[in-house]
């Protein structure tokens, strides 16, 4: 008696589509139960390749590379501006294991900007930070804080060059008071100069030099 094979009537058709997508890496649009939406490539039922994720609750969008279900590679993260109702990119750069890692640029809500290296979602490595008051820090970072060697330039042109620790001036450094035409070189600890030498520096070009020059020893 011949064996008759009946179709698997109990299996929905989307199962067959899903198997093909896993094998071929096809692009699909998938809606999660909470309303999140993903459009892009898949591998073994995981987001893998190029794709775009829209989070329903925050209305945030990520567009870029994915690896086994996580943001990994190059991509941009955007949020919806509540005033203009338009999307603006808040981070563009590299990701690893769903976190910022490598070189990238972040725009902060108050107009501040960071350009540089990241690790584990935190500013780490070399980077430049533009602050709201006009100050600029360029140097080393560790776990989201200036740490190592760096330079801070203030809005009035004065600047500090030297060591940093946990976001504060620490170690050997130089503070250029260009508005007064003086230079302080010494040792800092937790943002406080502990000892050093103060000399005239660029006094002739200073807009508001000290009343009397420092006598040479």
TrEMBL record:
Organism taxonomic ancestry: Eukaryota, Metazoa, Chordata, Craniata, Vertebrata
Gene designation: Morn3
Protein name: MORN repeat-containing protein 3
A single cellular component GO annotation: acrosomal vesicle
Domain of life: Eukaryota
Keyword check for Repeat: yes
The protein's role, per its UniProt record: Assembles a suppression complex (suppresome) by tethering SIRT1 and MDM2 to regulate composite modifications of p53/TP53. Confers both deacetylation-mediated functional inactivation, by SIRT1, and ubiquitination-dependent degradation, by MDM2, of p53/TP53, promoting a proliferative and cell survival behaviors. May play a role in the regulation of spermatogenesis.
Keyword terms: Cytoplasmic vesicle, Repeat
Native organism: Eubucco bourcierii
PANTHER family: MORN REPEAT-CONTAINING PROTEIN 3
Places the protein is found: Cytoplasmic vesicle, Secretory vesicle, Acrosome
